[in-house]
Amino acid sequence: MASVMAWGAGVAVAAFLGRAGFVALRRSRGGVGAMGKAFYKGGFEPRMTKKEASLILSLR
User: Fold this and answer.
1) Please, what is the end-to-end C-alpha distance for the chain in angstroms?
2) I want to staple 54 with a disulfide (CB 3.0 to 4.6 A). Which of 19, 36, 41, 59 is the partner?
3) Which parts of the chain span the membrane according to its record (predicted)?
């Protein structure tokens, strides 16, 4: 019975460490995350256009 509990604990620890490693790997790659999608990549025009205003106000 103790060996079954040890196996279960080992599997749980392995799953936890595997997920933590996967999350760390994904974060280290630096790709576009949730925060990266919130910002418009590009500069401002000399005068504000309708397109730029809609991007700032999050309108479609």
Assistant:
1) 61
2) 59
3) 6-25
